[in-house]
TrEMBL record:
InterPro entries: ThiF/MoeB/HesA (IPR045886), ThiF_NAD_FAD-bd (IPR000594), UAE_UbL_dom (IPR028077), Ub-E1_IAD_1 (IPR042449), Ub_act_enz_dom_a_sf (IPR023318), Uba2 (IPR030661), UBA_E1_SCCH (IPR019572), Ubiquitin-activating_enz (IPR035985). Heterodimer. It comes from Cryptotermes secundus. Residues 201-233, 538-615 are annotated as: Disordered. Pfam families: ThiF (PF00899), UAE_UbL (PF14732), UBA_E1_SCCH (PF10585). The active site is at 175 (glycyl thioester intermediate). Residues 210-220 have a biased composition (Low complexity). Belongs to the ubiquitin-activating E1 family. GO terms for cellular component: cytoplasm; SUMO activating enzyme complex. Keywords: ATP-binding, Metal-binding, Nucleotide-binding, Nucleus, Transferase, Ubl conjugation pathway, Zinc. Residues 450-531 form the Ubiquitin/SUMO-activating enzyme ubiquitin-like domain. It is found in: Nucleus. This is SUMO-activating enzyme subunit. The gene is UBA2_1.
Amino acid sequence: MAASIDGVFEEILKSSILSARVLVVGAGGIGCELLKNLVLSGFEDVEIIDLDTIDVSNLNRQFLFHKQHVGKSKAAVARESALTFNPNASIKAYHDSITSSEYGVNFFKRFSLVMNALDNRAARNHVNRMCLAADVPLIESGTAGYDGQVELIKKGLTQCYECQPKAAQKTFPGCTIRNTPSEPIHCIVWAKHLFNQLFGEDDPDEDVSPDTADPEAAGDAGEDALKISTNENGNVQRVSTRNWAQSCKYDPQKLFHKLFHDDIKYLLSMDNLWKKRIPPTPLFWGNLPDAVAGSSRNEKESGLKDQKMWSIAECAQIFANSCRNLKNQFESLKEDDHLVWDKDDKNAMDFVASCANIRAHIFSIPQKTRFDIKSMAGNIIPAIATTNAIIAGIVVLHAFNVLKNNFESCQTAYLRPKPTHRNQLIVPEKFLNPPNPKCYVCSPKPEVTLCVDVNSMTVKDLEEQVLKKTLNMVAPDVILDGKGTVIISSEEGETSENNPKKLGELGIADGSILKVDDFLQNYELSVTIIQRLVPKDGPDFEVVADPSQLKPKDDDKVESSTANGEPDQDDDILQVVEEDDDSSQQFDSKKRKTDGETEGGISKKRRTEDVIVVI
């Protein structure tokens, strides 16, 4: 292969390519294209890591994989396929998660550069921090349909992946999901929660029963009903959904009657909810409509199998079949194990699609096809092979410039679905984006302010909701500055007794400073506590990277926000920034919210938007 690039590159670049060691993180749509481009460009020392196995749905765009590879490691098969392009290349494959403790800073220091081809924000954040700690250039990339983006991340020279806020997935109030759905997505989220309640990881915050703490609901009636475990008058069953389902042996008719009749009758008893809304209609198993509302028979039967509309009677039969199959799968597992919802698992997908459509019918919401529900439930944005190929090509061009130390030529580039007014499809920014001096990751002294009620937040919530979920840490250690009290330890069991305690019980008060150290990410952060009561229907806490944002703002100043960020997707998909055609504007984003489509804390009254992060 060395001879094949003779005369293609200048000697210095050729030598750099042949000696470079490159890490590719992700072996999906972009990852496959990247690996092929690298070995054909003369790179001979490449390592690739991916946790996933190959699914049938990957085959339309991840061209290194074929039908016989389904179920095998993406990284391993990508390696085998890439070697057919260049047998002289040395490719090492890891079927593992890049966030594993085995891949620390010293692992990253071995590489000349790192290329991200990831499918989720948490892993992107982690690789960003590891590359900053190892001082290794990172080329970040992603696609969303016909859109694409490539950017260089270089410590001290460019902004890092977390310098600017990322738009979070849309979130919904828990009471809307449980009591008053008005859109198909509300029913789909409810159905996914129901799957977890019956067969998956049982999370109390994903309870699907009517929410008696809904402030709109009828006052004392709901609280009284909480004391009732069951009755014959249609009141909601106030026991564990899984325990009840197991007691009736997952009988589909009994499940149907409880979920789509009894619980609905209970909701109807909350009079205040239906003063300005169309009330739901309870269903009876033996009397279900066999037609699709608003559709003719020809429309109902047209199209591909997954694109046909189901009648409610059909939904009930699909619900019954999927319940039986999932029950068998669940009961075959080891004790304390559970099923994990997967959009590509037929029974799991049938269960969610049928439940969502039945609930939609009850609340007079338009039904969706199984195809549409799969896209919405799996947060899927269509991935296009040609877009992946173009973006992967730009990544390798950036790699050439990195190896030549020509960083100034690595401006962030955007691929557009249609030409700009300058007739450009690939639009580079004019300059490299400099680091955000207020970034809580790459600034010289990372610090944030945490506004929280220390008398209500527990240490466990601090670790899981603030440090891990919001600030993207993996294994944080926390010490109360000035007192030396260890609040959280990454050593298993060392501070477990602190988990249920309120922050105030451990001496954390207004003005306290927490020193946080994530050894795995080689990342230190100073957290200043500001005591505040949780506002009604407001976020439980607020993380502020720029203290000036805590000051009142002038009424005539309007904050701007970006739309860059990506939902967790099936592939290496990034929802790219929409901006002016010359792509030269600097971002001035101020707010972001954490990911999540469900409420994730203690109070069931609280909206699912339980945190605000201000940069």
